[in-house]
């Protein structure tokens, strides 16, 4: 009787069996790490009120006029409510325009605005930063796809702080 080693790794495991074992081990490690992270965020800090400002540009005038104080703000990526609009500011949207000599100058765009939406929401203060709704880190420079009752846009966090 012959001892066949074809398809076996070191004569013990089939190569396919080894791939499956490695996949299951990696999935288990990822699940353990995720649960450990959620546990650390969930129990490591108390709920705090976070005030934040999001810059959206370019925005048409009709869209700016549709956003009101008191509107809810949602994270479009996961559908979680992250707060309420407390203030809406605007400034001219500056667009780069190429001159005849090839230089670039910033000029006000008459059709668009830069909108700053200030909001308040409940979140957690962790070692990684402020987290709105338990899942959205709101550090300055970070992007967010946000929505309200009359707005759906992508913005950038300009400021975030724990409100006293």
Explain what this protein looks like in three dimensions:
The chain is of the alpha+beta class. It has helices spanning 15-44, 61-66, and strands at 8-9, 13-14, 47-60, 72-75, 81-98, 104-126, 129-132, 136-137, 143-147, 152-162. The protein starts with 7 loop residues before the first strand and ends with a strand. Strands 3-6-5-4-9-10 form a six-stranded antiparallel β-barrel. Strands 1-2 form a two-stranded antiparallel sheet. The relative contact order is 0.22. The model has no long low-confidence stretch (mean pLDDT 82). The protein is extended and about 75 Å long. Strand 6 and strand 7 (129-132) form a beta hairpin. It has two helices and ten strands, in the order ββαβαβββββββ.
Task: Give the gist of this structure.
22% of the residues lie in helices and 52% in strands.
Structural class: alpha+beta
Distance between the first and last residues' Cα: 81 Å
- The chain-level mean pLDDT equals 82
Poorly predicted parts? none
Rg computed from alpha carbons, rounded to a whole number of angstroms? 25 Å
Spatial order of strands in the largest sheet: 3-6-5-4-9-10
Give me the strand/helix succession: EEHEHEEEEEEE
State the share of residues found in helices, binned by percent.
Answer: 10-25%
Determine the strand fraction and express it as a percent band: over 45%
Task: Outline the biggest β-sheet.
Answer: 6 strands, antiparallel, barrel
- Number of E strands: 10
How many helical elements?
Answer: 2
Overall 3D geometry?
A: extended
């Amino acid at each position: 009787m012959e001892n066949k080693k074809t398809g076996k790794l070191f004569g013990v495991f089939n190569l396919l069996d080894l791939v499956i074992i490695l996949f299951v081990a990696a999935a288990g490690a990822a699940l353990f790490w995720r649960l450990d992270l959620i546990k650390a965020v969930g129990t490591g800090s108390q709920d705090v009120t976070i005030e934040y400002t999001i810059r959206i540009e370019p925005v048409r005038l009709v869209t700016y006029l549709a956003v009101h104080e008191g509107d809810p703000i949602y994270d479009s990526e996961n559908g979680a409510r992250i707060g309420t609009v407390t203030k809406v500011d605007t400034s001219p949207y500056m667009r780069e325009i190429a001159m005849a000599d090839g230089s670039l100058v910033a000029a006000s765009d008459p059709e668009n605005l830069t909108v700053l939406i200030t909001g308040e929401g409940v979140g957690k203060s962790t070692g990684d930063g402020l987290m709105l709704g338990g899942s959205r880190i709101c550090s300055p420079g970070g992007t967010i796809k946000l929505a309200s009752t009359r707005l759906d846009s992508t913005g950038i966090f300009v400021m975030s702080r724990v409100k006293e």
